[in-house]
Amino acid sequence: MTALDDRNATSIARPGDPDYELATRVFNLAAPVAPAAAVTARTVDEVRVAIRHAQAEGRGVRMLTTGHASGSYRPMDDAVLIRTEMAGSVDVDSERRIARIPAGTQWTDVAAATAPYGLAAPHGSAPTVGVVGYLLRGGISFYGRQVGLAVNSVRAVDIVTADGELRHVDAVSDPDLFWALRGGGGGFGVVTAIEVQLFPATTVVTGAAFWPAALGVPLLAAWERWALDAPRAAATSFRVLNLPPLPDIPPVLTNGSMLCVDGVVLGTNGDDPTVVQQQADDLLGPLRAIAEPVMDTWHLTTPDDVLSVHMDPTEPVPAQGDSMLLTELGADGHTEFLRVLGEGSNSPLVLAGLRQLGGAMAVPDPDGGALNHLDANYIYSGAGIPMDAESTAAISAHFGVIREALAPWDTGRTAPTFVESVNQPQGHLNSEQVRRADEVRARVDPTGLFRGDITPNATALA
Fold it and tell me: CATH says 203-418 is which class?
């Protein structure tokens, strides 16, 4: 290790150093990162020192928190990686309904901090995802149909720019940078903290119900009929699961392909729990009438339970993923979806599904940033576990089969937090938004120190 600064205990780590291994660990084991050097920063001064070191060596700077999206990162072999694990805890201002969150914090810690106040943030479905990347790349929450894209909840960002200055950026202090930070493709600096608007949340109905994949045709049709007119307080996903027989998975779910409908119905401080339960029953009743689920965990509870309902892994795993934003499917779309993913499809994917969008997520926020809404009915996402070259190739090939089958319903846009590979189609900004974001980058990073962190191809759509 090489000392970054005589006054600072932080050291930069090179390949082979234990601290390098700690700083470069990622959640997606199929997409490791290999920078020239790496450091775990816990204070603003440590971030500044790392930036100065990179500049002295003529290298770029890259950022990392949990590494869930490491497959979508550009190569960083000639860069200094800063892993942000900023000291401090989540600070909740219950009167203003604002949470200040240090970079590196995971959503499970935010949920635990906000729940005692009857408040919640628009987190995703995985408890171990880092807050900053999820928020600034858009963020699709089970609460999103009620409160909008998660990025619209950002109220301020603390960021160290290329000149080493710590900037507190909000709609007043620097409106252009604040606009660009929220979905503009990254590459502006090192975020050290973020402030998020919270919303009342004391009661939810949440859970998952499972059926054999043979019931795909009636279940998918019934689910979409409900989804098209669902109340904004409700958000669900329809998934096809091919789960391996692991100790922590109920055996009833590993006996062939299964279908799953999971999600959340949100109640607020003034809601009668019976109203929330009725909205959930309106969804689940027609599905349960088709056939009794082999397992059904939907229940009335508190928001603390929401982060576990999607059953996302909590330990690092190898993964390949793909996604598309889709319009309303209809009967033809159901047929194609089930043909390539349902029973008899021989899909090598462990899971694939449709997550309900719409509601507030489809409404442009006049005070929002570069990405402030998604004009689509669903996001399709699928994932496989690559174990060797043969399985990797099979998963990639099937992604192509799925893309071809669902092409008639593809909006052509993307949701950044669901882009899993640097080689996949990416495009959530139009050419004018890209131009505006580039102008902001030129101002705050004139030498392109952070250019490697810019989302590849976050453009090219007129």
Answer: alpha beta
